[in-house]
């Protein structure tokens, strides 16, 4: 299909198809990773391996990755509160949590809507807030949101496994963290994550 657009005049169409393929591969990879993560958790195979790193650099690079994978019009607006950003946590687990929440926010929002991501380090707690203006979660479904394989009624036609939030909850339990959300159907959803980071961090 891409070979049809070898002419420079067709560059826009070629890039569109390349992005579709990249997104399809990305979606399949996410599905596989979710099942693998679930298996490892149930077998007790996941442990925390903390390291010290710049939170702002880490999150900014992840946001750039999401911008490449998704529609160019759909943007994540990232803000870090405070001057200090060094933190000691398991980067892989933090990455998985952020990728899942950001992917959901982008997937359930139209491409002209911005996603707002905020991080803050205060009192040895990393607080992450992700706010979207997407389809929201029906009130009747909210109590089931972290159950395995559960999907809200207004999301059944959108690709997903119903595992992501369940896995995030397990990750946060492992790290001694928490997750809360507020949502209104057709208005949007805000997730707030709190993760304690190690005392030997510089903050």
Describe this structure in words.
The protein folds into two domains: 1-46; 49-199, Heat Shock Protein 90, CATH 3.30.565.10. Helix content is 37%, strand content 22%. By secondary structure, the protein is α+β, with helices and mostly antiparallel strands. Helix 3 runs antiparallel to helix 4. A five-stranded mixed β-sheet has the order 2-4-5-7-6, with helices on one face. A two-stranded antiparallel sheet has the order 1-3.
Average pLDDT over all residues: 83
Q: CATH architecture of the largest domain, please?
A: 2-Layer Sandwich
Placed side by side, the strands forming the largest sheet appear as 2-4-5-7-6
Order of SSEs, N→C? HEHEEHEEHEE
Summary keywords:
4 helices, 2 domains, alpha+beta, globular, 203 residues, five-stranded mixed β-sheet, two-stranded antiparallel sheet, single chain, Heat Shock Protein 90
Question: Briefly, what is this?
Answer:
Helix 3 packs antiparallel against helix 4. The protein is 37% helix and 22% strand.
């Amino acid at each position: 299909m891409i070979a049809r657009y070898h002419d420079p005049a067709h560059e826009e169409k070629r890039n569109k198809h390349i992005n579709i393929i990249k997104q399809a591969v990305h979606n399949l990879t996410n599905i596989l990773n979710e099942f693998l993560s679930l298996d490892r958790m149930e077998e007790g195979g996941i442990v925390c391996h903390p390291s010290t790193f710049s939170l702002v650099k880490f999150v900014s690079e992840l946001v750039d990755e999401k911008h490449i994978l998704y529609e160019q019009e759909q943007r994540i607006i990232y803000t870090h509160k405070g001057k200090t950003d060094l933190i000691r946590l398991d980067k892989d687990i933090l990455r998985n949590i952020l990728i899942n929440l950001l992917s959901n926010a982008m997937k359930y929002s139209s491409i002209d809507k911005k996603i707002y991501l905020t991080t803050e380090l205060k009192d040895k707690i990393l607080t992450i807030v992700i706010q979207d203006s997407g389809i929201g979660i029906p009130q009747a479904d909210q109590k089931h949101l972290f159950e395995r394989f559960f999907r809200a009624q207004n999301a059944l036609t959108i690709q997903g496994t119903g595992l992501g939030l369940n896995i995030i909850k397990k990750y946060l339990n492992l790290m001694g963290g928490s997750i809360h959300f507020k949502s209104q159907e057709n208005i949007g959803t805000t997730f707030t994550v709190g993760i304690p980071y190690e005392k030997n961090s510089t903050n």
